[in-house]
Specification:
Arc_rbn_hlx_hlx, RelB/DinJ, mainly alpha, Type II toxin-antitoxin system RelB/DinJ family antitoxin
Length: about 70
Amino acid sequence: MWTSNVGRTRIDRHIKVVATDVLAGMGLFVSDAIRMFLTRISADRTPPLDSILLSLSRIPTDNEAHSVIFQ
């Protein structure tokens, strides 16, 4: 049997709102996504950098970022 542990983090409000909507569409909560992320790190003994580095390989310009955020 596992026990719960509460973790707190500071997240930009807009990011949390959008992420919450995306996850809700998948039937998940933010806590589910965090749990999955931490479980993956625990199992692999490393963060899932492949997807993080892939997304960082093309950093958008300010105009591109603005258009994505405010579509």
